[in-house]
Amino acid sequence: MATNYWQVVVLAIVFLSTVSAARVAPFSIIQKPDGAVNVFDNSKYGLLQISNGLALTPQMGWNSWNFFACNINETLIKETADALISTGLADLGYTYVNIDDCWESLTRDLKGQLVPDSKTFSSGIKALADYVHGKGLKLGIYSSAGVFTCQVRPGSLFHENDDAATWASWDVDYLKYDNCFNLGIKPIDRYPPMRDALNSTGRAIFYSLCEWGVDDPALWAGNVGNSWRTTDDINDTWESMTSIADLNDKWAAYAGPGGWNDPDMLEVGNGGMNYLEYRSHFSIWALMKAPLLIGCDVRNMTTETVEILSNKEVIAVNQDPLGIQGRKVTVSGTDGCLQVWAGPLTGNRFVVVLWNRCPEAGTIEVSWDTLGLESSTSVSIRDLWKHEDVVADAVASFGVLVDSHSCEMFVLTPKLSRFQA
Ligand SMILES: *[C@@H]1O[C@H](CO)[C@@H](O)[C@H](O)[C@H]1NC(C)=O
Ligand SMILES: *[C@@H]1O[C@H](CO)[C@@H](O)[C@H](O)[C@H]1NC(C)=O
Ligand SMILES: *[C@@H]1O[C@H](CO)[C@@H](O)[C@H](O)[C@H]1NC(C)=O
Ligand SMILES: *[C@@H]1O[C@H](CO)[C@@H](O)[C@H](O)[C@H]1NC(C)=O
């Protein structure tokens, strides 16, 4: 398919609004000045290129690495599945329970097949999948497109068909495919064989590429995987989180239903950032249509961690079916530390995050023209952290004072024009 659906929709809105704004679009989209950020731009996205039917919205769930690293076992995975249910997180959409590195035995068996570590996963992965499925959740697994995984367990390079068949026989639902011990072979040669191997199992298995952004996967992974890491690993610091957000932003026009940019898993709840910083992390990840994969110990979360991860209105932004990645649209202040991030949502709405990355509080303002709206458009504004409608009829712009390292997150709903009413 040469043109894609959303491109057509967006072009149609722009075209029709130019021709007869009042009758066709509920509000008009103005021409952007050259060089300005176009929040609708998804021109590099190809709809559902890998056609496994998955990832219509970004994946949500949990992954073992950020908190537990190699200290994992089947008891932990089961208790995590239990906790996703008992905390209500599963009901909010966090359904993938993803095992990262260290589930494998150090060697393949005599037939060359992968086997689970006999001490920590003694009941086997199939039994674990059955347990997780019994809770209405899905099970994810991990390997590397190399001769070893990063923790030096057997990798799947040149074993793609065998390993995909093994995982499918265990009823696995998701693969995170890492980049260690890759023999210097280019990612574009190492990642597609696993796509084909997964496909040939006949089981729909979510394919999450993790080549750390080294070969700009947004440029080629749309027809390879359901998500692709755009950066090196995140760590539980403000510096890491903010720098990764900026790196991921570059690829906004390439994401969409079926294939998402992945700025790595969440650190919310791991203790290295404060409440407001974690709120910023979660808000920006949601706006960027990033995978929402919890990286803390969900068996033992603070009230604040639960509050952040359970914000239904923020999750709804991430899971909005329009599937256009929000992006950084304007900056002001020292080194551009007062930032406006925004993107379109279904229902002709916009999400706006006013993000203060400065060391002191500051006022941040979004003006309608940066969203492509006529400044006379009347807009109602809902605050997604206060869970309140804050303004009924703003025109031209909207600004608030934002604490240092905090953000405020809003949904903007432009009103129907007078001509249409
Ligand atoms: C395999 O790929 C074909 C062609 O893209 C697609 O139609 C089919 O749904 C895929 N099957 C699975 C299980 O991913
Ligand atoms: C399983 O892993 C968890 C988390 O690291 C640990 O607390 C627990 O002791 C382990 N259980 C067994 C049986 O090894
Ligand atoms: C965390 O990430 C930052 C920024 O990417 C990096 O400078 C730092 O070395 C990392 N820290 C650790 C402990 O890996
Ligand atoms: C629960 O988390 C707190 C920190 O929030 C920590 O001090 C405590 O040791 C944890 N408890 C368990 C059982 O892991």
Automatic annotation (TrEMBL):
<dbReference type="Pfam" id="PF16499">
    <property type="entry name" value="Melibiase_2"/>
</dbReference>
<feature type="domain" description="Alpha galactosidase C-terminal">
    <location>
        <begin position="335"/>
        <end position="412"/>
    </location>
</feature>
<keyword id="KW-0326">Glycosidase</keyword>
<dbReference type="GO" id="GO:0005975">
    <property type="term" value="P:carbohydrate metabolic process"/>
</dbReference>
<keyword id="KW-0732">Signal</keyword>
<dbReference type="InterPro" id="IPR013785">
    <property type="entry name" value="Aldolase_TIM"/>
</dbReference>
<dbReference type="InterPro" id="IPR017853">
    <property type="entry name" value="GH"/>
</dbReference>
<protein>
    <recommendedName>
        <fullName>Alpha-galactosidase</fullName>
        <ecNumber>3.2.1.22</ecNumber>
    </recommendedName>
</protein>
<feature type="signal peptide">
    <location>
        <begin position="1"/>
        <end position="21"/>
    </location>
</feature>
<dbReference type="InterPro" id="IPR002241">
    <property type="entry name" value="Glyco_hydro_27"/>
</dbReference>
<comment type="similarity">
    <text>Belongs to the glycosyl hydrolase 27 family.</text>
</comment>
<dbReference type="Pfam" id="PF17801">
    <property type="entry name" value="Melibiase_C"/>
</dbReference>
<dbReference type="InterPro" id="IPR041233">
    <property type="entry name" value="Melibiase_C"/>
</dbReference>
<keyword id="KW-1015">Disulfide bond</keyword>
<dbReference type="GO" id="GO:0004557">
    <property type="term" value="F:alpha-galactosidase activity"/>
</dbReference>
<dbReference type="InterPro" id="IPR000111">
    <property type="entry name" value="Glyco_hydro_27/36_CS"/>
</dbReference>
<keyword id="KW-0378">Hydrolase</keyword>
<dbReference type="InterPro" id="IPR013780">
    <property type="entry name" value="Glyco_hydro_b"/>
</dbReference>
